[in-house]
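Hello, quick one for you while I still have it in my head. A protein chain has come my way and I'm curious about its shape. Can you walk me through what the tokens say about the fold? No rush at all, and the record is pasted right below.
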Amino acid sequence: MARYADTLLADGERIALRTRQHWLAPIVDARGPWAIFVVSVVVLVLTFGMTQGTFRDIVGWVGLAGLVVSIALLGHRYWAWLAQDYIVTNRRVLKVEGIINKRSADSSLEKINDAVLDQNIFGRIFGYGDLDILTAADTAIDRYRMLKDAPGFKKAMLDEKHRLDLEMVRGTSPAMRAPTSRTMAPDEVTKALGDLADLRDRGAISADDYEAKKADLLGRL
């Protein structure tokens, strides 16, 4: 059975990486239900030392109710964790959350400038981290908190972005062919030329590819 995120993929879009939050995330985020669970267990244990009577019955029922509610809340949080899909495709980064009501958010790879990775000592030990995805304006557009193998997710995202950049430069990407006649602002052209020069300097494209694309960009002013 296909997951909900799979139905959001466009024609020709392939998944490079699929993951979710680290397994510790639902435990950390459910501090309230865990507290109710512990208190309820303590209350139920204490009832065994009480004398028979109405007070003991009331305390026992309160403890039992708290235990049932806490287990339900913990189960809901675990189910929500299982429903998560954090995906890197050859076109975008996609986040899908929600059990019944789904919420999806995506960031186009061509608009991503960088990603800021934050890992504390526990994150490095247990294998998770926080990842902020940035636009060209260095504005965080989405945050992936307690992401499983955050460095691997960042690497996969930047690798796919690099491949997309190459396709756009060579004119093989639909995303590149569509806007060929669009007029561009001077700052857009300047940034695009800087990105092209970086690709050329790293040997990702040839000097001829650079000059051809440079002429195309300058023609859009």
Observations:
- The longest strand covers residues 140-148.
- The radius of gyration is 25 Å.
- Helices lie at 25-29, 31-47, 54-82, 121-126, 150-170, 174-177, 186-201, 207-218.
- Residues 175-181 have pLDDT under 50 and may be disordered.
